[in-house]
Amino acid sequence: MDLGITGKWALVCAASKGLGKGCAQALASEGVNVVITARGNDALQATASELRAAYPSVQVVAVAGDITTAEGRAAALSACPQVDILVNNAGGPPPGDFRDWNRDAWIKALDANMLTPIELIKSVIDGMAGRGFGRIVNITSAAVKAPIDILGLSNGARSGLTGFVAGLARQTRVASHNVTLNNLLPGPFDTDRLRGTMIGAAQKSGQPLEAVMDARRKLNPTLRFGNAEEFGAMCAFLCSVHAGYVTGQNVLMDGGAYPGTF
Prior knowledge:
Layout: E1 9-12, H1 18-29, E2 33-38, H2 41-54, E3 60-64, H3 70-78, E4 85-88, H4 103-131, E5 134-139, H5 152-169, H6 172-175, E6 179-186, H7 192-205, H8 209-217, H9 228-238, E7 250-253
Parallel strand pairs: 1-2, 1-4, 2-3, 4-5, 5-6, 6-7
Helix pairs in contact: 1-9, 4-5, 7-8
């Protein structure tokens, strides 16, 4: 299927590894020029080199910086001739007990997982509407659908973004101009973040890491973790010309772990 987005420009956040990298790869494979951002310059440059080698016909621009700051956002946006596609992504806040979180912890979570995506959306959405094409995909979490008790910071911040997007996506001056906003909700994917969580669980339990990971896999109906490539493919479809009638939606990718009908 030709996704119809060859030659478009995409800004993909936190794209040096994991799910963000999967989205950047999928978009580049469709002929989309990409600006990729991340805080770690070494990993970011390695990913940029990999994308350039794999997809020589597209432009790949790497901008190292903290997207949660005004300076980081300005640098990323200025590197993109125009933002036709925006993929918002940021690492989730740490787990814990809400009794231990002070105001600073909440503000940090909100900055990364709610306010930064909103600031980026605000920067690009009117230009998208003026050109008659725009795709915004926010990578959130399956915890938006089924909250996880120890992830209160993430539950709160990401749910706030979800509510905001639901209202904005349905504004006529957005939707009628072929601009869509959707959220991708990953469950357990084979990423550094998941592995880090599993390492912590292994150390706490005294079990080997692979035993802990295998037990976690068996909790999923698919008996496996998701991979960044399939996540990126879903992101690319939501960014395609074929998804113009899909907006304001929360697309859950969790291997069927969520037990509900709706």
